[in-house]
Amino acid sequence: MSEARHPFVTVRVRSEQLELAQLRLWELGATGLEERDQTTLVRDADSGGAVVIAAFPDEVSAQHALREMKSQYEAEILYVPQADWATEWRRGFGPQRIGKRLLLHPSWEPAESKPGDVVLTIDPENAFGSGDHETTRLVLQVLDERVDGGERVLDVGCGSGILSIAALRLGATSAIATDIEEDSVIVTARNAELNGVAPRIWASTLPLAEVDGVFDIVLANIETRVLVRMPKDLQARLAPDGLLVLSGILRPERDELLAAYAPMKLEQCLDEGEWCACVLRHAEP
Question: Parallel, antiparallel, or unpaired for β 215-221 and 238-250?
Answer without folding.
Answer: parallel
